[in-house]
Amino acid sequence: MPLHRAVVNGVLYEVEDGERAKPRGSDPLELAKCGCYGNGCENIAIEYPGTGFVIRNIGQQRVRVGIQMLSGWDCGGWSHFKLYHGESRTYPNGGHCCPYEVTQF
C-alpha cells in the first residue's frame, strides 16, 4: 500500500507498506493535516480521549460522515453514518485513515 496518513489515539502517523514510517505529532496543526473533504467539515470535531476517538457533530446541520477505519496499519473499508446536531459516534479503540469526508444535507 502506498504512503498514507493515519491517526491513532490522537497522534498522526505516516504509514508505508503496512508499517508506521514516522509519527507526525499530536498538536492541532499536525492533526489538521489529516484533511477533510466535503461541504460539512466545519460541522465535525474529532476528539481523542486517550484510546480510540469520538466524532461529534458540533454544527447546526445534519451531516453524513465517511471515514476509513484502520485495519492494522492499513486502511480498511469505509464507514458511513449520519449525525444530527449534538450527536456523536464513539470508537473505543483503533484509529482512522486520512482524509475523511463530511457532507451536509
What does this protein structure show overall?
- It is a single chain.
- With 105 residues, this protein is mainly beta.
- The chain is built from one helix and eleven strands.
- It has one domain (4-104).
- The chain has one helix at residues 28-32; strands at residues 4-8, 11-16, 19-25, 36-37, 44-47, 53-57, 63-71, 74-83, 88-91, 95-97, 100-104.
- A hairpin with a 5-residue loop joins strand 5 (44-47) and strand 6.
- The model has no long low-confidence stretch (mean pLDDT 88).
Give the overall silhouette: globular
Query: Unreliable segments (pLDDT under 50, ≥5 consecutive)?
Result: none
Q: Beta-sheet strand percentage?
A: over 45%
Separation of the first and last Cα atoms: 33 Å
Q: What's the rounded overall pLDDT mean?
A: 88
| Helix percent band | under 10%
Element-by-element helix/strand order: EEEHEEEEEEEE
Helix segment tally: 1
The strand line-up of the biggest sheet is 3-2-1-10
Count of all domains: 1
Number of strands: 11
